UniProtKB/TrEMBL annotation:
Keyword Transferase tagged: no
One Pfam family in the UniProt entry: PPR_3
Cellular component terms (Gene Ontology): mitochondrion
Keywords from the named record: Repeat
The protein's name: Uncharacterized protein
Native organism: Spirodela intermedia
Keyword Repeat: yes
Signal peptide: none
Gene Ontology molecular functions: mRNA binding
The family this protein is said to belong to: Belongs to the PPR family. P subfamily.
NCBIfam families listed in its UniProt record: PPR
Positions annotated as PPR repeat: 217-251
Length: 493
């Protein structure tokens, strides 16, 4: 073994064949040249179009000086490299027009798709309109995804007629030989109904009813129902729902929730006393159709009751949802939030605290924003003691990092009220829990912090909330009375 080891140590490393090294270097150099040739046109175009400076005519003259063979795939690569927001839309549009003039290739469907999506993502409606008009003039057929994207964008801009014209253009793209597919019809119907243009969508469905199957017709009916509900037309929405039932189609829970929201919004505006009866009748209709109402259905009703300040009805609906009376929908943390919020806004602080305790007793786990919004509301109505009680619940349920903004809000409000003892307790508690406060330590110094006496104080009695004027407000009234007396004396003299 020792002899073999000495022999291996004495051996010299063999030298590589120089011819093989030359072949390897030549092959590697050819690969680098091919890679450089592949990336060089794209890099040159990006330097001129995306990173270049100057006007559009200067950019076009710089493009003419480049010795590059433009192809549709290269144009697509340029637009793909601009997805992150790089490049001006006007320069990209001029580059697209210049590229189309330089080549007569017929495979321009993919570049049109990339360009339309890029301009739609940037929100450039004129550039997108120019491309769509070019498509219409050249009778080009658009891909289904791009067509849906363009239709939704046009309706969002408030141009539903252009969306319908785009659909007709796609039907005439192949000289009228290729019929309009049901997928494109449904895309236009969905885009129109999403913005409340249900009347135009209904006319489109009636025109192409023969080209829609049973499944497509059910989807179009759901979109129409949603569109009528967006426009707050409960009569037409009810008519579409009855047509779906007679055709044997199942509307689904989303359709019933849309109808429920439409009825609640109309009753909120015209007849608030009919909110609860009509909402419960729609929920009974849902159960009869085999769709159990979810918490979203109850929250729609509670939201409208809270906006109408019908506090007793909102509280009773929440209690029925808690006890599941009459197969009511279950309550989630949003239900408790809506009722607690309206109770705090109307000055019923004790009952609002009771609602929060009931939520915790029922085992409903709220999100941190539940407490953040309630604490912010209570600070806005200057009920800091109730806000501290709500914050105590939050500290026991939420993570320390979720409580940081609430610490800052409470500390600032307490300092303005002159309650520095409570502020010190909150700062010590935050330090013990490892919460990094965003407020300054100078807030604890009463000599540097301006303290404001609240203009009005609140006192809750058996009759409800009573406003009690403070000494500061009484002084203002006395000054006004003195001024009035002086003015009367001047007039008398």
């Amino acid at each position: 073994m020792e002899a073999v080891a000495r022999r291996l140590l004495c051996m010299r490393p063999s030298r590589r064949n120089p011819s093989s090294l030359r072949r390897f270097s030549r092959h590697r150099g050819e690969e680098e040249d091919e890679r450089r040739q592949h990336h060089q046109p794209l890099q040159l175009l990006r330097e001129v179009v995306v990173d270049g400076v100057g006007g559009l005519d200067e950019m076009e003259s710089a493009l003419d000086q480049l010795d590059i063979q433009v192809s549709p795939s290269l144009v697509s690569q340029v637009f793909d490299s601009c997805d992150a927001g790089a490049g001006d839309t006007r320069r990209l549009l001029r580059f697209f027009a210049w590229s189309r003039r330089r080549t007569q290739d017929a495979l321009w469907g993919d570049p049109f798709t990339r360009a339309i999506r890029t301009f739609a993502a940037r929100g450039d409606a004129p550039a997108m309109g120019i491309l769509i008009s070019d498509l219409q003039r050249d009778h080009r057929h658009m891909e289904a995804d791009t067509f849906a994207f363009a239709a939704e964008f046009l309706v969002k801009l408030g141009r539903p007629d252009d969306c319908l014209r785009l659909l007709k253009m796609q039907g005439a793209a192949a000289g009228g030989r290729r019929p309009i597919t049901s997928e494109r019809i449904l895309a236009v119907v969905h885009a129109l109904c999403g913005r409340g243009h249900a009347e135009r969508a209904a006319g489109l469905v009636g025109r192409y009813r023969g080209e829609l199957g049973a499944a497509e017709m059910a989807a179009a009916s759901r979109s129409l129902l949603h569109g009528w509900c967006v426009g707050r037309n409960a009569r037409e929405a009810r008519k579409v729902l009855e047509e779906m039932k007679s055709a044997g189609a199942r509307p689904g829970r989303a359709a019933y929730d849309a109808l429920l929201r439409c009825l609640c919004e109309r009753n909120l505006k015209f007849n608030p006393s009919a909110l609860v009866p009509e909402a419960f009748s729609v929920m009974a209709e849902m159960r009869a159709a085999g769709e159990a109402p979810a918490a979203v259905s109850g929250n729609i009703l509670l939201s409208c009751l809270a906006r109408a300040r019908r506090v007793k009805e909102a509280y009773s609906v929440l209690q029925s949802m808690r006890r599941a009376e009459g197969k009511r929908p279950p309550a989630d943390w949003i239900s408790y939030y809506l009722v607690a919020r309206v109770l705090y806004l109307t000055g019923r602080f004790i009952r609002g605290n009771r609602v929060i305790r009931q939520m915790l007793e029922d085992g409903v786990a709220p999100e941190p924003r539940f407490f953040r919004r309630l604490v912010g509301l209570l600070c806005g109505v200057e009920s800091l003691d109730i806000a501290l009680e709500v914050f105590d619940h939050m500290r026991g349920l939420c993570a320390p990092q979720d409580c940081g903004p609430v610490y800052d809000l409470l500390i600032a409000k307490l300092c303005r009220s002159g309650r520095f003892d409570s502020v010190r307790r909150l700062c010590d508690d935050a330090a013990a829990r490892g919460v990094l406060l965003g407020c300054s330590r100078e807030l604890l110094d009463s000599s540097k912090k301006e303290v404001f006496e609240p203009a009005k104080t609140e006192k809750e009695t058996g009759r409800g909330l009573v406003r009690v004027s403070s000494s500061r407000e009484r002084r203002k009234k006395m000054k006004k009375m003195k001024k009035l007396k002086k003015m009367k004396k001047r007039r008398s003299t």
